Hints:
The protein is 69% helix and 5% strand. With 433 residues, it is mainly α. It has two domains: 1-200, Preprotein translocase SecY subunit, CATH 1.10.3370.10; 212-400, SecY subunit domain (Preprotein translocase SecY subunit), CATH 1.10.3370.10. The chain is globular. It comes from Brevibacterium samyangense.
Amino acid sequence: MLGAIGRAFKTPDLRNKLLFTLAMIVLYRMGSYIPAPGVDYSQVQLCVAAPQLNQGAFGLINLFSGGALLQLSIFALGIMPYITASIIVQLLRVVIPRFEALHKEGASGQAKLTQYTRYLTIGLGILNATTLVSTIRTGALFGNVEQCNNLLVNDAWWGILIIVITLTAGTGLIMWMGEQITERGVGNGMSILIFTAVVSAFPSAFGAIFQTQGIDIFAIVLLVGLALVVLVVFVEQSQRRIPVQYAKRMVGRRMFGGTSTYIPIKVNQAGIIPVIFASSVLYLPGLIAQFGDPEAGWVLWINEHLTTGDHWMYMVLYFLLTIFFAYFYVAITFNPEEVADNMKKYGGFIPGIRAGRPTEQYLSFVLSRITFPGSMYLAFIAMIPLIALVLIDANQNFPFGGTSLLIVVGVGLETVKQIDSQLQQRHYEGLLR
């Protein structure tokens, strides 16, 4: 392993890519601690350290920003506007034919969709920054703690405008850094930045468990975490391979086809998106309640049932929403009709299945059956932090489970694969033997 890492850094172009990626990660983490202009930084630190702190609806955003949201830094919005914009553009392919046509055009169409995603990211950045400033002024960001009601030094309209512009520019800079990592570094840039933000929260989470629960619970958490990592790696690598045979055909004087391949359908075809969707939907009631009358009946009901993960109603809804969005996202991203048409166009067929409509029905059948264990797996992983919240009184950013574990393992596996493939091109030996 150490020898493989040494070979990676001895290869000039691969070394440059790794060093560039590390440099972008360092800059990203530095930006997470630079306070935004017009914010009372010393008071923010007191609010972050307050024992009454309840992240509420902002827990997911704070996780993806590596804690920069509650620090009110220039990168407070993190990568979430870009993630949301990417998901929206992907979903719009279903309802807007123009977007679907661009997706099928190849590189030029993808470039156009990427441009739309950038514009939408900036728009969502402005919206999110405005909402964040509003929650800062009302004190809702820190759970309406009295000393955190207004953390702005300058409450004039131009001071607020500067903060909104700074936070939006921070989002644009993060987006640019992610694209630069993708082009000049190793791995997918956005995934690497999300990975960095999530991993940065691990030391504090481990420290909190060790200090509050003792060495025994800490050791149990590590063992359970190791078992969960093994489970996630096993499921993420699992796939159903549907064999495909291509018939021989003559094109001019040359013979084409006659090859065998397969269609890989992963058990977790939807990735982490269903967990993000379910979390976002459940955060909406709490977010709305923070702007209502604290004494109103509907606000009290939401605060009691839908803001903390230790209530049974919250757990059941989270479990069911994760399963629903797993099926929903797979149905959008994998089109059996399109796959069957492409196979028929190029003379491909599944052995024992006729081309055309029967192939589409067979793919839909296999996809629905394999999505069920995948959705149950996602729901189980998503419930782990909530179970930990009940059993050992851990916070909602429990290190092993939910979005954290899926991101860390998924991005780690993909990055190692890319480094491994580049090493094999030069040394005929990969990173891992």
